Amino acid sequence: MLYNFDEVIDRRDTGSLKWHYSDDTIPLWVADMDFKAAPPILNAIEQAVQHGILGYTKPTAALYDAIIDWHGSRYELALKQANILFSPGVVPSLALMMNVFTEVGDAVLVNDPIYAPFMSKVEQNGRTLITSLLQESEGKYHLNLADIEAKIIEHDIKLYLLCNPHNPGGRVWTADELKAVLSICKKHDVAIVSDEIHQDLTLRGHTFTPFLTLATGYEHNVVSLTSMTKTFNIAGIKGSMIFAKDDALIQKISQQQQLNDEYELNLFAYTAMRHAYEQGNEWLAQALTYIEANIDLTIQFFAEHLPKVKVMRPEASYLIWLDCSAYSQDDQVLYDSLRAAKVELNAGIKYGAEGHLKMRLNVACPKALLIEGLNRMQTALNSDGI
Ligand SMILES: Cc1ncc(COP(=O)(O)O)c(C=O)c1O
Question: What is the rounded CA–CA span in Å between residue 87 and residue 259?
Fold first, then answer.
């Protein structure tokens, strides 16, 4: 079956976070897609509603099998039911990890730039935020391993929150890069939590490596967090997974979850998760092809019409990191000028100091919307007011 990703669906007045406008602004910001979810997922949810009884649930054997098969067949990540916990979201799990691996006042390391909740959850939970800047060369970010080790030693880091694939830079860290991180963390007894929510959106030519596939012998200090919500554009359903391969660690995480009774998902999340992993493959393949074409189109557009924007081609996902420093020297002016032209992007500065004068562009929308959004960016960046 061919899915229609060109269909423009009006999302205003649906309670959408992304489409919060009363005018015709085009949202190219928060990371959800303007594509209808895969029919097998929607059908399964409809069937659950039709059944008519929406009582308490628990994860079924079929759900565990679907998760285990997906991760085993795509990524050679060998999981057992005992390695899997459920959580309302990856961000809630990031926050939970503070209590699993650290005490109030401990130092936690993240990269900069980084998806903003990595920073806010550390600080809101009373931990000390330490950042290691990514280094840009040849059009992509690299981990600064020497700096990571120096920061670990200097600040007595207890936990490193890694984002793989990386948001906002789009890097899919290679197995060698991850092994280097593992070796440093092992040497200094630092726990690693790997947020892998963008794993399934890895683009052609790149290979995603789950951190847990490398962690043999260090499993007591490694957790990965992932979800079907980003992959299948069902973020409003909420729901995610926590993977750990050490029994004592899983038990500790589970105990932490029980403090706030935070280990259950709702009926629709369980249903969507199972059917996404069982039957979502074809939709995902087509969505990725469409996204890849939108990325190519966008890169070409900037080369032709806004050549001074430096574009970072993502290796995963649909978020493109743009260096707009040739057009403005002020983050707020940059953001406001785009908003005035009725297109919204994420201000790069929200992702840390390295995001100064950068913007994050979401291209997971019908081509017609994207082209109109890009035209509005051209108008804004070429205007005198900026
Ligand atoms: C790296 C990363 N982690 C987590 C999330 C959100 O996860 P959740 O909605 O499950 O809390 C996002 C959403 O954009 C993300 O990019």
Answer: 13
What is the CA(90)–ligand 1 centre distance, in A? Answer: 6
pLDDT (mean) for 225-231? 98
Ligand 1 centroid – CA 386 distance (Å) = 32
**383 pLDDT tier (thresholds 50, 70, 90):** confident
Residue 61, pLDDT > 80, answer yes
Task: State whether the beta carbon of 317 lies less than 6 angstroms from ligand 1.
Answer: no
Which residue has its alpha carbon closest to ligand 1 atom 16? 167
Q: Would you say residue 384 has pLDDT above 80?
A: no
Please tell me if the CB atom of residue 235 comes closer than 6 angstroms to any atom of ligand 1: yes
User: Which residue's CA is minimally distant from atom 13 of ligand 1?
Assistant: 31
Per residue in 282-327, pLDDT tens?
999 999 999 999 999 999 999 999 999 999 999 999 999 999 999 9
93 CA closest ligand 1 atom index:
11
Cβ 240 under 6 angstroms from ligand 1: yes
Integer angstrom CA distances of residue 182 from 27, 80, 174, 284: 38, 23, 12, 30
Q: Which strands form 240-243's sheet, in the order they lie side by side?
A: 84-87, 240-243, 222-226, 191-195, 157-163, 107-112, 128-133
The dihedral region occupied by 198, where left means phi > 0, alpha psi between -120 and 50, and beta the remainder, is alpha
The arithmetic mean of pLDDT across residues 70-91, rounded, is 98
Give me the chain's average pLDDT, please. 97
Domains, the chain, with CATH or none = 26-39+281-380 (3.90.1150.10), 54-279 (3.40.640.10)
